[in-house]
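Morning!

As promised:
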Amino acid sequence: AQTVTQSQPEMSVQEAETVTLSCTYDTSESDYYLFWYKQPPSRQMILVIRQEAYKQQNATENRFSVNFQKAAKSFSLKISDSQLGDAAMYFCAYRRGNFGNEKLTFGTGTRLTIIP
Amino acid sequence: DADVTQTPRNRITKTGKRIMLECSQTKGHDRMYWYRQDPGLGLRLIYYSFDVKDINKGEISDGYSVSRQAQAKFSLSLESAIPNQTALYFCATSDYGPGAAGELFFGEGSRLTVL
């Protein structure tokens, strides 16, 4: 079974600085998708960014970018110019790429605190 | 209005009571899921349904049952609630097929407390 590991239960960063959240995963598949979800205090789960394993280029969404290292099975999230609204739980998730397997497996999360 | 709606948002109940959490969606997705979130454990899959006639157990289905009443409706039941079922429950939907990444679209969560 696939596993997703987030080894940093908590992180903090000064406002306007850059922070990187770590995620590793275990799979024998070559085709898969990776996701980062954000859960603010409102508890809504919000998709931040996704990465297709077949794409070598790292995904970016405004201040959010990933460092996808397929051989190392690593998928870290970089948040640039941190803002107070970035304070949240962040979950890394994985799913196999073939159709009929759209179940996501989640990591245990990293709580990010923004220091004003 | 939200694309994925869960009711109730919050519920406190007693041990042994039957509880139903309801989920409805307007995204037109065939695939629906129930996840449970516990501190330090992330989200774990309880049940999932790929269409009205297809229901599957997830990794933690014991003590739960589901009903897919229509494409848009998927409910989760706790037949006899126990305190360790206290958690935040999420309903989600996903698209599928060529070109679909299969990301989940979540409801706002139902916080259940079993006393």
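Chain B has a mean pLDDT of 93.

Hope this helps with the figure draft.
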